[in-house]
Design a protein that fits this description.
The chain has 8 helices and 4 strands. With 207 residues, the protein is mainly alpha-helical. A hairpin with a 2-residue loop joins strand 3 and strand 4. The radius of gyration is 16 Å and the shape is globular.
């Protein structure tokens, strides 16, 4: 499936209220983007998590504003995390929990459902963490789409003209932003916010 089709289906399913299907298609959009960005990387997991990490400057403010995602590790038990220190970051959580669960047709594990923020006012994004569980904001869906839309490899993609991404109070028509990663990053980084590394202490040691 074309990346543009995955982006379209994400938004269509979101509008129908099917959050899990929207997340599946958003992960597919990142999968397709990563395959084009790193064609020589045979590991789907490594290229998927790599493309997210290399776009944390866009993804972070949209999905988890104020959190230093490069250095934050989450207290979730995952096999073979792809970080240098072997402890899962948000890219590993998205791949190991959301991408793989939905991709295999399984039920999402308890404690990993997305928190409903997109339908609410801008400026309110939540994340819920317990030992072994991480509930991300549903803004994660659209942050994943932003990675796909901004990728230069997707310059030739398209969606229906009325579809857009939003950030803060801005509406960004998708067809105007394909391949413009640097411009998109400049827009996102223009909004000042904290940059806090979360430390989950003993929870990390007891996984």
């Amino acid at each position: 499936m074309k990346v543009g089709d995955s982006v379209r289906k994400t938004i269509e399913d979101w509008e129908l209220g099917d959050t899990e299907s929207a997340m599946l298609h958003a992960c597919n959009a990142v999968d397709g983007t990563a395959a084009k960005t790193y064609p020589n990387e045979k590991s789907n997991k490594r290229r998927f998590t790599r493309v997210i990490r290399e776009n944390y400057a866009i993804f972070g403010p949209m999905a988890a504003p104020g959190i230093n995602l490069a250095d934050t590790r989450f207290p979730v038990r995952l096999q073979n995390a792809t970080t240098a220190d072997g402890k899962p970051d948000i890219a590993d959580v998205i791949y190991g929990i959301h991408r793989c669960t939905h991709g295999h047709g399984d039920e999402l594990p308890e404690g990993f459902d997305l928190l409903p923020d997109v339908a609410g006012p801008p400026g309110h994004t939540h994340i819920g963490v317990q030992q072994g569980q991480v509930r991300l904001s549903d803004r994660t869906i659209f942050a994943l789409l932003a990675i796909a839309v901004g990728a230069p490899e997707n310059l030739d993609q398209s969606v229906p003209s009325e579809m857009y991404l939003s950030f803060d109070t801005l509406k960004l028509p998708i067809n105007e932003w394909w391949g413009r990663r640097d411009d998109l990053q400049a827009v996102v980084c223009s909004v000042e916010m904290p940059h806090v590394t979360l430390d989950f202490g003993d929870w990390m040691d007891n996984l």
